[in-house]
Write a structure and sequence with these properties.
By secondary structure, this protein is an alpha+beta fold. It is 60% helix and 12% strand. Strands 2-4-5-7-6 form a 5-stranded mixed beta sheet. A two-stranded antiparallel ribbon has the order 1-3. Helix 2 runs antiparallel to helix 3, helix 3 runs parallel beside helix 4 and helix 4 packs antiparallel against helix 5.
């Protein structure tokens, strides 16, 4: 006979034998409460209680020697049961806790090893099932975001192009011109959000790369200041740049990505700092780091929102809300440069964002 046909039959036969043997075991017909870890712990507790009771009876009515023997047996059983509990319950649960933390940190699909078929094994199966389903949902979310972002690009490009073309027409005046300027501005804002979504999906899919070179951060910020000062003036804000007094060393990084981080933070300062009249951009050195600071003089960030502002898709409870991706992208870029992104409220009001980039990445 063909081996391929005999193997399933043999496997099914072996499975049937195992099932019959399992059903023949003495504890196979025990109540549910007496099985697994619960049953073992209940049996150990009852046996310990019996030895304690016997020790008391012997001490009161018969022999002190037998009372000591029973007491010693109770103590030994209690110690052994605690060791057993640590080995069979505490240690596996600590391991499952580590797996759960990995999943919570974004390592979706991580699986824990199933050691036994008791309640801890069932818990392991539940956590593994959850991890797999979260991983599938996360991939589906990323694919959906990527697909929608690509589909939005084409109509937004057309809207941007035609709105800019119509604004060159001098015959367009009054409310019509103002309406077209609003359309152009909102289309530009939507385009920026779509680009953030695409950047986010690239990071999630592992397609995000850094082109490292020696970066003169001072020159980069001077360029940003020159470009952004006029744009911010239109929004009624003054960009004040404080250049370093001494020359700063270069950093190893991707200049395009570092500039992206600074521009994104400045965009947030414009959006959320409208209560003030200026935005302060600073550059200096702090230990082994190049320090970039951006401060606005707006209302600041609510205390409830502050711990979550760098989380992806978190929009906060303020009136101004973005895509919830910008700071998450900045955090990813800075982290990949072995740096730190710190968002906090400034003394005296407003928000202070600090970017620390190491002089030499490890």
């Amino acid at each position: 006979m063909d081996g391929k046909n005999t193997r399933p039959a043999a496997d099914s036969t072996a499975a049937g034998i195992r099932a019959r043997l399992s059903s023949a075991l003495p504890w196979a017909h025990l109540p549910e409460a007496m099985r697994g870890l619960r049953g073992a712990w209940l049996a150990a507790s009852c046996l310990t209680a019996v030895f304690v009771l016997l020790a008391l009876i012997f001490a009161l009515f018969w022999s002190a020697l037998w009372a000591c023997v029973c007491a010693a047996a109770a103590i030994a059983l209690l110690g052994l049961s605690n060791l057993w509990f640590r080995e069979r319950v505490t240690s596996p649960i600590l391991g499952l806790g580590d797996t759960a933390r990995h999943i919570a940190d974004g390592s979706y699909g991580t699986l824990a090893e199933r050691l036994r078929g008791d309640e801890i094994g069932e818990l392991t199966d539940a956590i593994n099932d959850m991890s797999v389903k979260i991983g599938k949902a996360d991939r589906a979310q990323s694919e959906f975001i990527s697909s929608v972002s690509h589909e939005l690009r084409t109509p937004l490009t057309a809207i941007n192009g035609w709105s800019e073309t119509l604004l060159y027409d001098e015959a367009l005046q009054g409310d019509s011109r103002r309406g077209m300027e609003i359309i152009s501005g909102e289309a530009g804002r939507l385009t920026g959000m779509v680009e953030e979504l695409l950047e986010f999906t690239r990071m999630r899919d592992g397609r995000f790369t850094l082109n490292l070179e020696q970066v003169d951060v001072a020159a980069l910020l001077e360029e940003v200041t020159f470009t952004y000062s006029e744009l911010m003036r239109r929004d009624g804000l003054e960009l004040r740049y404080t250049a370093p007094e001494d020359g700063l060393p270069f950093v190893s990084g991707d200049p395009r990505r570092i500039k992206q981080v600074v521009l994104n933070i400045l965009d947030n300062a414009i959006k959320y700092g409208r209560g003030g009249n200026s935005v302060e951009l600073g550059l200096g050195r702090e230990g082994e780091y190049i320090k970039i600071t951006v401060r606005d003089h707006g209302p600041g960030i609510a205390a409830d929102d502050l711990p979550h502002v760098k989380e992806r898709f978190y929009k906060g409870h303020g009136k101004e809300r973005g895509s919830g991706i910008g700071l998450a992208v900045c955090e990813e870029i800075v982290t990949r440069h072995a740096g730190r992104l710190i968002v906090d409220n400034a003394q005296g009001g407003g928000t202070l964002v600090t970017v620390l980039l190491p002089v030499e990445t490890q």
